């Protein structure tokens, strides 16, 4: 099927049409009388290139009670994402070519979004022995990003060797910056609120010390470092300094760190328990500024679904993490566009174009000739977040019941509508698509 999307405004551009022929955006259809063209009346909606997430937990294999590649892919489509990067801390850990190929194939079978596995840096996330990085890079999954996310690669020599190894194929080490010796038993950000509540704190310096070390290592080796979920003002300063010195470092911030502060922990609602923890108002302002001036390159969801029982318990026993795929775009609009820090072209940059560049994907553009990954957004819509209507298996969103701006209307993945007027397509089995 081919598509003519009428009356649409590409972000920042004049109203016009988008044409999709055989899964590819084209300036003009190949024949004037092309048959099998479905007309989509967009009614002035904004078109963005499909969003690209560099930090998604899909939980499969091993924790299918929390999420599967299929349910997470459906959540991605609802959020406007046409590519997600699946973190390696599954069970078994994605530290071999076999596991990353399994995740990649499950993504293809699901068919709602591209699923690119992230490989573990070390075997079993143990921080000791390098995983088979080369075999994962050479596998069918073509892994380019490696991370022990959930854990920090804390040994500087292991980190140096990982950076040296991936340099051969221009890979990226994505670091979860958390010095474990400074965060033992931590339950929330260390500061006034943790002192008042009597909860063990996770100090900002535990993140900043690792980032400072790693930008020096990356500069020394000449390799690419990506800093996951930056959460403190000090981290932004260090990355700004490193970029000014020419270090090949990129960084991400999550939607929740753009909006929420540690004051939320006073509720003792475990939905606000996350790693890195929610920080202070000053940190929120600093990460917004860092995103606005390009110090922080991208927004990544850190979508972290958990089964209900992992969150329906006392604070100290609860798992860390929040879901994020289905709310990310709205949070970026609320925190960056509405306060005037961003235009829609900036949203495209931090949620599509730059993440695609970092991952080495030919995505993040609406130029003719590129794959037809397109999201249609109603920028004027307001919606109340309804957990029951979400596609993710996880219901641990801190935004439940909130009224948020902007709504994803439709998502085209590789030229096929996987979300149409807010409704997920019933794709069925992948073999029906094979052609
Ligand atoms: Zn994560």
TrEMBL record:
Query: Which InterPro entries does the record match to this protein?
Result: DHOase, DHOase/Allantoinase_Hydrolase, DHOase_cat, Dihydroorotase_CS, Metal-dep_hydrolase_composite, Metal_Hydrolase
Where does the source fall among the domains of life?
Bacteria
Q: List UniProt keywords, sorted A-Z.
A: Hydrolase, Metal-binding, Pyrimidine biosynthesis, Zinc
Binding-site list for substrate = 57-59, 89, 275, 306
The record's top EC class is hydrolase
- Organism source for this protein? Spelaeicoccus albus
Name the coenzymes or cofactors required: Zn(2+)
Record-annotated Dihydroorotase catalytic domain positions: 48-233
Protein name as catalogued? Dihydroorotase
> Could you confirm whether the keyword Acetylation appears in this record?
no
- NCBIfam families named among the record's database cross-references: PRK09357.1-1 (NF006836), pyrC_multi (TIGR00857)
Q: Which residues form the active site?
A: 302
Q: Which reaction does it catalyse?
A: (S)-dihydroorotate + H2O = N-carbamoyl-L-aspartate + H(+)
Instruction: Provide the GO biological process annotations.
Output: 'de novo' UMP biosynthetic process; purine nucleobase catabolic process
Q: How is the cofactor bound?
A: Binds 2 Zn(2+) ions per subunit.
């Amino acid at each position: 099927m081919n598509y003519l999307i009428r009356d649409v405004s590409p972000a920042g551009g004049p109203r016009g049409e988008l044409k999709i022929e055989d899964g590819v955006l084209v300036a003009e259809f190949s024949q004037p009388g092309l048959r099998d063209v479905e007309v989509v009346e967009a009614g002035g909606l904004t078109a963005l290139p499909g969003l690209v997430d560099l930090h998604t937990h899909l939980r499969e294999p091993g924790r299918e009670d929390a999420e599967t590649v299929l349910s997470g892919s459906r959540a991605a489509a609802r959020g406007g994402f046409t590519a997600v990067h699946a973190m390696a801390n599954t069970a078994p850990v994605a530290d071999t070519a076999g596991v990353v190929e399994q995740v990649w194939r499950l993504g293809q079978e699901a068919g709602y979004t591209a699923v690119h596995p992230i490989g573990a840096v070390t075997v079993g996330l143990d921080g000791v022995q390098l995983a088979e990085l080369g075999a994962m890079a050479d596998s069918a999954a073509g892994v380019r990003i490696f991370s022990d996310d959930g854990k920090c690669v804390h040994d500087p020599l292991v980190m140096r060797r990982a950076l040296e190894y991936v340099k051969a194929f221009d890979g990226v080490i994505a670091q979860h910056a958390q010095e474990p010796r400074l965060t033992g038993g931590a339950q929330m950000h260390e500061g006034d609120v943790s002192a008042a509540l009597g909860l063990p704190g996770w100090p900002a310096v535990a993140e900043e010390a690792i980032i400072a070390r790693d930008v020096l290592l990356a500069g020394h080796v000449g390799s690419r470092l990506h800093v996951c979920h930056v959460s403190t003002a000090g981290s932004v300063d260090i990355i700004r300094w490193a970029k000014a010195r020419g270090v090949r470092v990129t960084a991400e911030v999550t939607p929740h760190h753009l909006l929420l502060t540690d004051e939320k922990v006073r509720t003792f609602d475990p939905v606000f328990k996350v790693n890195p923890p929610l920080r202070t108002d000053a940190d929120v302002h600093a990460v917004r500024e860092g995103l606005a001036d390009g110090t922080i390159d991208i927004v990544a969801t850190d979508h972290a679904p958990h089964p209900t029982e992992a969150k329906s318990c006392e604070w100290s026993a609860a798992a860390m993490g929040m879901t994020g795929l289905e709310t990310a775009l709205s949070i970026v609009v609320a925190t960056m566009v509405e306060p005037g820090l961003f235009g829609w072209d900036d949203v495209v940059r931090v949620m599509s174009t730059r993440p695609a560049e970092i991952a080495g994907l030919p995505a993040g553009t609406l130029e003719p000739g590129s794959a037809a990954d397109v999201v249609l957004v109603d920028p004027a819509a307001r919606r109340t977040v309804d957990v029951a209507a979400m596609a993710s298996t996880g219901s641990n969103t801190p935004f439940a019941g909130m009224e948020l701006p902007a709504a994803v209307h439709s998502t085209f993945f590789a030229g096929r509508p996987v979300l149409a007027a807010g409704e997920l397509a019933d794709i069925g089995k992948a073999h029906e698509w094979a052609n």
